[in-house]
Structure formats: structure tokens, C-alpha cells
Fold:
Amino acid sequence: MSQTLTEIAELLKVSIKKVQLIYAFNGTGKMRLSRNFRLLIDPKVDPEMEGPTDFSNSKVLYYNAFTEDLFYWDNDLEEDKERQLNIQPNSFTNRLLTFLQNQGLDGQIVHRFQQYSNPNITPYFNTDFSKVFFSLESGGNDSLNNIKISKGEESSFVWSVFYSLLEQVISVRNILEVDDRETQEFNQLEYVFIDDPVSSLDDNHLIELAVNLAELIKLSDFTYGKGLKFIISTHNPLFYNVLHNELDLNKGNKKEGCYLLERFDDGLFNLNVKYGDSNRSFSYHLYLRQILEAAIAANNVEHYHFTLLRNLYEKTASFLGYQKWSELLPGDKTAYLNRIIQHTSHSSLSNEMISQLSAPEKKTVELLFNHLIANYGYWK
Structure:
């Protein structure tokens, strides 16, 4: 049944399950779902203010792209020497930084960051935890200070900050007697919503992060169905499957809070329940093929279908052992078609993000889809 994201957020809210795991393809609406969920749980929050709110009076703690946006670079363009990662001040980060500083969690954050990125890169917080500097340790006298780290490393750092906070939240909340807790900061929390913390990780670190997160969730007390409820959404099938297995969400082959978020051409959505063994494999290629086939047949090809088409090419190339997905493109116009897919699937300019495509663009999707199906071993 078609629903709005707010209606789906309501379904997630009323669930009695400790963990709800959601898979969705890129461009489906995962991040918007996390935002709608936050606004549903904490309606008092200014809807124009993005990013997590002050956790001392919030019922939901969440991680998504808005969380990462709270961290931004000062590249010292004049001197090119004092590059630093700044933390945007707001009610959430002010309380967060004070808490991290009082708990002395900088060492824990550094350890977690090096675990998921490069052990030779060391973050250093300033005295009030509002700025972070990074150095590349070489083991000798050639260390580089105040370096700018990659976008993937930056994402790993932000996740390490969030994860360290989450560890403390669970540790405090596991003390059931409220008066015995070392802090009352987290008494109001009911939900933790995590959207795709793995977008920049290789498979080894991705698996490690998933296992660590699953272990932390299992440590969170849920006696008699009372405790924090976790909602995790991802576009990565490996991350989904590791969490599904580590959290034993296939007990008794029953409905255990596992979903596939689908987006329809009319802008509505469906939270499709996944049962038992169906969670072990998404039939990833076949599901992508089904979506594209239906859109082409109904002449409802939109902008996001280019992203799905590229995804289908990437997964097919990887399965067949090609080094580049572009090697699967028709040979007579490879460079042109490669550029078309690159542009339409990665465009970041708002005036380019028009859902409706022109007739030639729709034909390009159909041409590339039919070429892949006809030439690379898909069952007809």
C-alpha cells in the first residue's frame, strides 16, 4: 500500500521491536525518512533547523548526512598552514562537546577513527573541543601537521564521534535506576535512528563497523520491551546482511523488523516487510532490473532511474570480473554514454535535479538497459 514518508515514520514509531532494519536503494528517500521521523518524534523542534537537537530533552538521537554537515573545514586559504575541522555550534553540538570533554572521550574517538581509516592519522581536539586538527605520523621526524583528510576519512571521524556518544548513552541507560545514573542527560531518549554510516568505507572496515554496531546494540538493555529502539537504514546490501546476521533478526523465519523501502513514480512509498531467508540476499540485480523494466514499460523514467541503471551496471561488472563498469557500455558511443550516466547519476546542482526526463534521455535509459540485458547473461 502506498504511503507518505510521514506515514511510514509513524509505523516505525509504534513498533515494539528493539531493532528495525531498512534497506533502500540510493535516491529512494532514506535520509528524508530519518528527518520525517525526527519531526514526528520531536514536533517541538524548529522544522527549519537541520541536524540533531539537544539530546538532553530530545526523544530521538540520529545520525545522517545532516550530522556530517555539522562538521566543516577551515582550509586557511591565506596561509595554507592551519587547516582544521570546525564543529558548527548549536544546541546539540554545544551539549555534545561539553559531554565529550567532561568524559575525556577524545582518546576513545581517536582509537575508533584510526580503526576505520588510517592508524597513522591522529586527530587532536583543541581545549574546548570545537576544532579538530589532524596529523600524519610517519614514525620519524617527517610527520605532517594540520593536514586535510579525505571526505571518506572525515565521514569516519564524524561517525567515531557519534559512536563514542552512543556508547556512553547505552552505558548510562543500562543503569535501570534513574537516580543511580551518573548523568540525567539521556533519560528522555527513546529512539536511535542511524542512516548509512558506511558510504565511504571499504568492505573490511564496513564489516568491522557493522559488527561493532551490532555488539553495541545487543548490549543495550531491552528488558520487558523497555529501552532504546534502534532504526537503521542503508543502501549497502553487505552492511544490511552483516547487521541482519549479527543481530539474529531471522529468528523463527518470522517478521522481525526487516524492511525494503520502495519509492513509486507518484512520489509515494512502501515499507515492504522482508521475511526470514529473503534477507540473506536481495536478488540485487533482479530487483534493479524489475524497477527499470517497469519504469520503461510505463514511460515513467525519471532522473533517479539513471542512478539505478548505473548501479545495475556496476554490480554486473563486479560480478563478471570487469575492472570498470563502463567496459559494459556499447562500444560505438562508450565515452559519450559514460559521460551521460556519470552526469545524470552524480549531478549536485539543484537546477539540474528535475525528476522528469526528456524523450531522448528516456530513450538512453531504455537503450542502455536493453543492451545490458541482451549482452551480459541475464535470463530472458
Q: What stands out?
A: The mean pLDDT is 84. The radius of gyration is 22 Å. The chain is about 45% helix and 15% strand.
